[in-house]
Write a structure and sequence with these properties.
By secondary structure, the chain is α/β, with parallel strands linked by helices. α6 crosses α7.
Length: 303
């Protein structure tokens, strides 16, 4: 973690205030790693074990910390755990560069097995939503509820290219302020100071003083795009296998997941529901975490 405990607590407090939350005392998560096959996967455990478990999966190039506000908001009623998926955050990078949906589905199973979770809810955004869907199709008996945030298996929109362009633009290590400025240009909805502190979870300072991202850019450089398209088609063909209530979440200003994408996905799911979060783009949990957390509590509490 690039923030000290005091800085992290202050970041959570100020971010909560800005988003209209009132948490009282700010609790920090326990951070740990577990071995899953050849990798060590890092995760944040927000406590309250014994409550219904939820596993949160971030999007590509993000980390488990993207879910901080939602986990703080829900930890009174759920056991919230957020995972750094392979090649992201403080989890290991696979030596063989395997970032397939199948490999990440296996990570979810191995991680849940390590925690002793036989049944749990899955909340995934973008890449994490596809990985969660893959797990729910393969192991329907283990998933109590599924939430897919701003993603579907057959959504292909210009916003996806915009994200790839941003990732490529900031790929090389550089001065912290330059990275922050580029991130603000990419997502002007964010408060500059809040964004700076949030980015510290996803950046690591280099010996020369520059800063580098905590994700494996090779995931994009060496991706077999045709194989990935085939995996997405298989996910779309397998939607009928999802045996749990599923909430499809769309950011109202998203340029990645359009309204027709969300409605089509909701209709094809056996127990699909749809909600649109106002004042949010693709990264719903960062743009409007309060409204998203309220929808998650309503959905997961009823599932």
């Amino acid at each position: 973690m690039s923030l000290s405990a005091d800085e992290y607590r202050e970041h959570l407090r100020s971010t909560a205030d800005r988003n209209g939350f009132d948490f009282g005392d700010i609790v920090l998560p326990r951070e740990a790693k577990v071995p899953v096959d050849a990798l060590h996967l890092n995760y944040l455990d927000w406590g309250t074990a014994g409550q219904p478990p939820i596993l949160f999966l971030h999007g590509g190039s993000l980390t488990a910390h993207t879910w901080d506000m939602c986990c703080l908001a829900l930890r009174d009623a759920f056991h919230c755990v957020a995972l750094d998926q392979r090649g992201h955050g403080d989890s290991d990078w696979p030596a063989e560069l395997d970032y397939s949906v199948a490999a990440q589905k296996g990570d979810i199973k191995g991680f849940a097995d390590r925690l002793g979770w036989t049944r749990f809810a899955l909340v995934g955004m973008s890449m994490g939503g596809l990985n969660g869907l893959a797990f729910a199709e393969a192991y329907p008996q283990r998933v109590t509820a599924l939430v897919m945030v701003d993603i579907g298996p057959d959504a292909h929109r210009p916003g996806s290219s915009r994200i790839r362009d941003f990732v490529n633009d900031v790929a090389e290590p550089g001065p912290l302020q330059a990275i922050i400025d580029r991130a603000l240009e990419f997502n002007p909805r964010r408060d500059p100071e809040m964004l700076r502190r949030s980015l510290m979870h996803n950046l690591r300072q280099q010996p020369d003083g520059n800063w580098a991202w905590k994700y494996d850019r090779r995931r994009y450089e060496f991706m077999d795009r045709e194989a990935f398209r085939q995996e997405r088609r298989a996910l779309a063909d397998g939607l009928a296998k999802v045996a749990c209530p599923t909430l499809v979440v769309r950011g109202a200003q998203s340029d990645v997941f359009h309204e027709e994408d969300a409605e089509r996905l909701m209709r094809r799911l056996p127990m699909g529901r749809l909600v649109t979060i106002e004042r949010a783009g693709h990264t719903v949990q960062g743009d409007n975490p309060k409204d998203l957390a309220a929808e998650l509590r309503r959905f997961l509490g009823a599932s």
